[in-house]
Specification:
single chain, alpha/beta, Spore Coat Polysaccharide Biosynthesis Protein SpsA, Chain A, seven-stranded mixed beta sheet, two-stranded antiparallel ribbon, 31% helix
């Protein structure tokens, strides 16, 4: 079976909004619903776990299909929220079942990326969505440039990130026991020496972090170029 974990954490600080970014309405629909509905309507997704702030659980439940969706409380940080979802699934899932983890604030995720993730996990330890770097890249020293790096060897990591349950649960458990923090789930698994397959995302699959990102998303869906 294929389980999607969608992360609805975040408090809107970087967006400078009183309302968390995932609950801001664009065209009368909350941001998180754009990505949620893509997963909901994908024929290969069996169950969706939405991880959100405790105070928003009743609100989220009113917005989703509860026959296919479970809403649980997240943690103080992204890593803790994912681990909460994995612990919730512990007695409800097989070790070989597929876990697809996605940031709900990447609202322009496509059906084809999800399909590619599911197909590629059959022959790999993990599958990570990524994009090749297009800008020149450099290492800085304070406010000064130190040296350039070869962008052909660099990718920008996106979500979804796809794993087998046993692998990602054990990786998160190990990180929890050893009090290690990581920026995403692929980096947790990579540190367990698993082979991580990269698949191509797209430039529209960006994460809404700033006010400018929110405006860009609104313009894209309204075809205001």
């Amino acid at each position: 079976m294929n389980f999607a974990i969608l992360l609805l954490g975040g408090n809107g600080n970087r967006l400078k909004s009183e309302l968390p970014k995932q609950f801001i309405k664009i065209n009368e629909k909350e941001v998180f619903l754009y990505s949620y509905e893509i997963f909901l309507n994908h024929p290969d997704i069996d169950k969706i776990i939405l991880v959100t702030l405790k105070e928003f659980i009743p609100y989220v439940k009113e917005k989703v299909n509860l026959e296919k969706t479970i809403v649980i409380e997240g943690g103080l940080a992204r890593q803790e929220s994912v681990f909460n979802a994995l612990k919730y699934l512990k007695d409800k899932i097989n070790d070989s079942d597929v876990i697809i983890i996605h940031d709900a604030c990447r609202p322009l995720i496509t059906t084809s990326i999800i399909t590619s993730s599911i197909n590629e996990i059959k022959n790999n330890d993990a599958v990570i969505t990524s994009m090749e770097a297009t800008n020149s890249l450099a290492i800085k020293d304070g406010d000064y440039l130190s040296y350039y790096i070869d962008r052909s060897k660099v990718v920008e990591i996106q979500t979804p990130q796809t794993f087998r349950y046993k692998d990602i649960y054990e990786a998160h458990l190990n990180a929890y026991i050893n009090k290690k923090s990581y920026t995403d789930d692929g980096s947790i698994l990579e540190n367990k020496f698993k082979k991580v397959k990269l698949i191509r995302g797209n430039s529209f699959n960006f994460k809404i972090t700033t006010f400018e990102d929110l405006i860009l998303f609104e313009r894209i869906i309204n075809h205001e170029f």
